Amino acid sequence: MCAGVLAIALAAGFATAGLAGAAAGIRPPGSEDIALFLILCLLTGVFEEALFRGVLFRSFAESLERAGTCRPLLVAAAASAAIFGILHVSGTAAPLADAVSLVQLAGKPVQAALFGIIMAGVYAQSGNLWLAAGAHAAFNALSELPSFATSGQLVETYVTGSPADLAVLLGTIALFVPLAAAALRGLARADRLA
Fold it and tell me: Is residue 32 part of a domain?
């Protein structure tokens, strides 16, 4: 699953750089930019995994297990992924009047929720939160790296109004679906965290 997530990140990064990032012009990042980029990717991955999988998913799963709920990991993953998705709606760089922006606004939480399910599967099957945090940080870095390398800036990935950004968003959603389905199957079979 982690390899699939990283492959999707690279594809999204190169697509973003090729479709949208090229318009920004080439300005190689300086060493301070690179350090900030790496810290931001690492901290975001560690923080979000600690909060959403380490606290929410784990707490939901343990509570549901104690309550005798059927398929507690599946329910916990769905709940924590839904919250993760909802909290990824932000950053409107474009007016919400156009169709592209509206689809991005609706698509970003879907993309994030699918990613949350995948990371819950990684964590539940491995029992290793650091693996999920590392995969998350690597996803962030790889999906942003091509554009960052050519522009020296982090590219806006939420609601931009750009058809190219929308294409990348919809592509990642489509690529996440089979990985999320595999994670859900694994979560449905497991009766408790590894």
Answer: yes
